[in-house]
Design goal:
Blueprint (H helix, E strand, L loop, with lengths): L3 H21 L4 H12 L11 H21 L2 H6 L1 H30 L15 H12 L3 H10 L6 H26 L4 H38 L4 H21 L4 H13 L4 H25 L3 H6 L1 H25 L4 H10 L5 H12 L5 H16 L1 H6 L1 H8 L3 H16 L6 E4 L3 H12 L4 E5 L2 H9 L4 E3 L5 H6 L7 E4 L4 H14 L5 E5 L5 H7 L3 E4 H16 L4 H13 L24 E6 L11 H6 L6 E6 L5 E2 L12 E6 L1 H12 L2
Parallel strand pairs: 1-2, 1-4, 2-3, 4-5, 5-6
Antiparallel strand pairs: 7-10, 8-9, 8-10
Helix pairs in contact: 1-2, 2-12, 3-11, 3-12, 5-6, 5-8, 5-14, 6-8, 6-16, 8-15, 8-16, 9-10, 10-11, 14-15, 14-17, 15-19, 16-17, 26-27
């Protein structure tokens, strides 16, 4: 007989194997949890049993998932997206449930006969079960869709905002559905009384918690944070989450509702981001355990017997949700292409669909022998989602004859703004960093062109007369329309390494002479970005620390000239192009005359060193001069290599004393 430790080790081992395989295949880890649950479950290898203790522990995965969702539901965010969340999202969930009930009643009347025992009537699902099933089918996968949209930089796009609005309402709708489904098994009069009492309890509890709960939560977390103990903060976080879950459960509601409220209360405090980081390990591990228990319920024998039903359940809901979401998005003002993309992204089943389906089965609203085909169909719809999203552009271009025209108009709008610009700075991202850069460029009379994916920000900035347009900097069409080939420099102002590498690849392939400056959080990706073609990489953490250090040194009385030198020495270790400084007119004095400085020397076609190696031309004759970097004629910055043959157009950045640099320039250019 397996002990608790045996089962724990089995679950952990299976989870590790599943996640590793999904990572290798670039699939969401959730699918790995489901797969290993099927393999070790009682219907396959029978290595583990779906015990009550494991199910109860897995419920905490749902609790922490609802807590994380609650963290995203702050009131300002809901107000800014109210038309998408409560208009588009409410319509999608409500109409999906209604359509499921109507469709089930029509099929149950004899319009179709597919199922475990040869006919749909063998399901023994009444209208209450159809409501629960509709709630489960209305959900889409937040984990898969948001992850892929973030990778594709589409969160702020037109269809991305609509997708996020619907997903937010789906997550919010889970709270009343978790209360509704257990009550559906009662009689009509009992159902009305139960729902009325639940609504009264929930209203009273939420009113008390939300009215004064935010102030109490802020006071309590501040009190805990002042103890400066990570362990104490984590313990109180678990206490608050599980304590409110326990409170709502004892009010006759659900554990998930209390966790959701706890997340909403903390979302209004300044500790939100720290809490998100601290709770993530519990959320991921316990949610993984929940998905393993869901996979254990899947009976592959029933899939063979009911393959036609599984195929039907895999296609009909996906096609229906695709059509419904597309129609609703278009009805709420989206173009055909945007509406179709929104539908494609949300056609699959979701994590909370498993939660609601499991709850409906426990309440005997859906027969257990029907659960496996439904689970299999939901998993299959989620498996094909990455492919659908990956090829969504091609699908939309084929289906929507006007989408290519809308994209052409968008590129034309960008090109019309950039047509009179030349030798301008192309700014990718117009957040705070991009706007500060634009102001400095304006002060110096340097033209610029900015691309950003936030339509509200672009609209407000454009009205103010700033040269910014809506466009995706990771798409070649947008960069070309913005005048990439004519730009004097390109700056990536947001710290996203994946996006930066994509832009660098496009620039190096289509405009290799344009220098690129990249912003990062720290210097962990500095070498990788430089290898990808970045001319300059600026880690903001390092710059912030250097500025803080310089201000502190000045405050304690260190002379400002020495402060500048100390900070400059620290930069030497991080920036190849900043080892020293370039000479200026204000540097001609006794103090500055013998300091290390930089000099840029560009080799002409008649330079005597062209065709010789660096070691023969410079190292052997001028050991006092150091080669900091070498920028070839194509614009790529290379690491110093003594054996590289110098070519016309190469720019050598040298470091040394003034007289040594003068000798080096004469040696390289004139012999």
């Amino acid at each position: 007989m397996a002990t608790t430790l045996d089962l724990t080790l089995l679950y952990l081992f299976a989870a590790v194997i599943g996640v590793v395989l999904c990572r290798l295949m670039k699939l969401p880890p959730m699918l790995g949890y489901l797969a290993v649950g099927v393999v070790i479950g009682p219907n396959a290898l029978a290595l583990a049993k779906d015990s009550a203790g494991v199910r109860y522990l897995a419920e905490f995965g749902v609790v922490f998932l609802m807590f994380v969702i609650g963290l995203e539901f702050n009131l300002p965010k809901l107000r800014s997206m109210k038309s998408l969340v409560f208009g588009l999202g409410l319509s999608q969930v409500g109409l999906t449930i209604v359509a499921t009930v109507v469709g089930h009643l029509a099929l149950a009347s004899g319009l179709a006969y597919l199922g475990h025992d040869g006919g749909l009537l063998g399901w023994n699902i009444n209208w209450q079960g159809a409501v629960a099933l509709g709630g489960a089918l209305a959900m889409s996968s937040t984990a898969i869709v948001v992850k892929m949209m973030a990778d594709r930089l589409e969160l702020e796009s037109e269809h991305g905002r609509r997708v996020m609005g619907i997903l937010l309402f789906q997550d919010l709708a889970v709270v009343p559905l978790l209360v509704l489904i257990p009550a559906l098994g009662d009689s009509a009069s009992e159902l009305t009384r139960t729902l009325g009492l639940a609504a009264l309890k929930a209203g009273a509890l939420l009113a008390v918690l939300l009215a004064g709960g935010q102030r109490v939560m802020h006071w309590w977390l501040t009190l805990v944070a002042r103890r400066k103990s990570d362990e104490l903060f984590m313990l109180n976080l678990l206490l608050v989450t599980l304590g409110l879950a326990w409170l709502t459960e004892h009010f006759g509601l659900s554990l998930a509702l209390g966790a959701f409220v706890a997340g909403m209360l903390i979302a209004e405090t300044e500790y939100k981001h720290q809490v998100e980081t601290d709770i993530r390990p519990f959320h991921d591990v316990l949610l993984g355990l929940f998905f393993i228990t869901i996979g254990m319920k899947l009976d592959w024998h029933s899939l063979i017997d009911s393959w036609a039903l599984v195929l039907l359940l895999s296609t009909l809901p996906v096609l229906f949700k695709l059509g419904l979401v597309t129609s609703l998005a278009k009805g709420f003002g989206a173009t055909t292409g945007v509406a179709l993309r929104t539908g494609l992204y949300l056609a699959q089943a979701g994590e909370f669909g498993f939660v609601l389906l499991s709850l409906a089965t426990e309440q005997h609203l859906i027969p257990q022998h029907v659960e496996s085909p439904l689970l299999a169909a939901m998993v299959m719809s989620m498996l094909i989602t990455p492919l659908i999203i990956q090829y969504s552009d091609r699908i939309v271009m084929r289906v929507s004859s006007t989408d290519w025209l809308m994209q052409s108009l968008a590129m034309t709008k960008i090109a019309s703004k950039a047509i009179n610009t030349d030798r301008h700075v192309l700014i990718c991202g117009y957040g705070r960093c991009g706007q500060n850069l634009a102001r400095l460029l304006e002060q110096e009379g340097i033209p610029y062109m900015a691309l950003d994916l936030d339509p509200d920000r672009v609209h407000q900035a454009a009205i103010a007369g700033q040269n910014v347009v809506f466009g995706d900097a990771t798409r070649l069409q947008s960069l070309v329309a913005a005048g990439l080939s004519r730009a004097s420099a390109l700056v990536i102002t947001y710290p996203d390494t994946a996006s930066a590498k994509k832009i660098l690849h496009l620039v190096r392939e289509h405009a290799p002479t344009v220098p690129v400056a990249v912003r990062t959080i720290d210097d962990a990706r500095l070498d990788a970005l430089q290898a990808a073609g970045a001319t300059v990489v600026v880690p903001e953490a390092i710059e912030g620390s250097l500025m803080l250090a310089s201000q502190t040194l000045a405050l304690v009385g260190i002379p400002i000239r020495r402060v500048i030198r100390l900070v400059q020495d620290q930069r030497v270790a991080r920036y190849g192009l900043l080892r020293g400084y370039f000479h200026g007119a204000d540097d001609d004095n006794e103090d500055e005359g013998e300091l290390q400085r930089l000099a840029s020397i560009t080799l002409s076609t008649d330079a005597v060193c062209v065709g010789t190696s660096l070691s023969d031309c410079l190292d052997a004759k001028l050991p006092e001069v150091t080669l900091v970097s070498l920028r070839c004629a194509s614009g790529r910055v290379l690491q110093p290599d003594a054996d590289r043959t110098l070519e016309a157009g190469d720019t050598l950045v040298l470091s040394g004393r003034p007289r040594d640099l003068t000798r080096a320039e004469r040696l390289l250019l004139k012999g």
